[in-house]
Design goal:
rod-shaped, 8 helices, 434 Repressor (Amino-terminal Domain), four-stranded antiparallel β-sheet, 225 residues, alpha+beta
Length: 225
């Protein structure tokens, strides 16, 4: 209930006219009318005088307005608090999700970096082994003449003198007979590959093979390594 309505009820219950109440308050009747119509409200001093006339407390005079205001303020405060809690909860969830995403991205990134680093280290290690391997490889080349055909025989071996690779190449002018013989010779070399642990034994075996067929054997010392 507004203060104007409250004032109207108090005046009626006290059997006072607007003029009579205005006289007690030393104001005009029109002021009382404006209060009761809700067009204006009494100031704090006038409100105290009204409460004395009707023998009520100032709180009772404005009780309904105060309660409504308090209830509205409390309701608004509760709404604000509720909204704030929801917003804080959503913000917390967003922050947690963001942190989880950041952690996952970092984990994936670190894993990829570690994987790439490991692969790089392995590749570098393999390249180093290959360089060392190639540095330790030695090569000997021989020229073979047999049946008017010429061949180049190359053998590679390591520090332990173990044969690594045999290569036979036809270097005379190509013809069907030379190719046929080459196929026979290369098959022998391939079939016997791995039978010897020492390069000297392997060379002697291939040399004996060609010499037993009437071929000649000459080492090219220019590329001896």
């Amino acid at each position: 209930m507004e203060i104007g309505n409250k004032l109207y009820e108090l005046r009626k219950n006290a059997n006072l006219s607007q003029e009579q109440l205005a006289e007690k308050l030393n104001i005009t009747r029109q002021t009382i009318s404006n209060w009761e119509l809700g067009q204006t409200v009494p100031d704090i001093m006038q409100a105290k005088e009204i409460s004395k006339i009707f023998k009520i407390t100032l709180d009772e005079l404005i009780d309904n307005n105060v309660k409504d205001i308090l209830v509205e303020k409390i309701s608004n405060t509760e709404k604000i608090v509720g909204t704030t809690k929801k917003n804080l909860k959503m913000l917390s969830i967003v922050i947690i999700v963001f942190l989880i995403i950041v952690v996952l991205i970092n984990v994936v990134y670190m894993y990829r970096v570690h994987k790439e680093k490991t692969m790089l280290e392995q590749r570098q290690f393999q390249e180093q082994l290959y360089r060392e391997y190639m540095t330790n490889i030695k090569t000997r080349r021989f020229y073979i003449s047999i049946n008017n055909e010429k061949y180049s025989y190359i053998i590679q071996y390591g520090e332990d003198n173990a044969p690594i690779l045999d290569t036979l190449a036809l270097i005379s002018e190509y013809n069907e007979k030379a190719q046929e013989n080459y196929n026979i010779y290369i098959n022998y070399i391939l079939q016997t590959y791995g039978n010897y642990k020492d390069v000297k034994e392997r060379i002697n075996d291939v040399k004996n093979y060609f010499e037993s067929r009437g071929g000649t054997w000459e080492e090219n010392s220019n590329i001896l390594m």
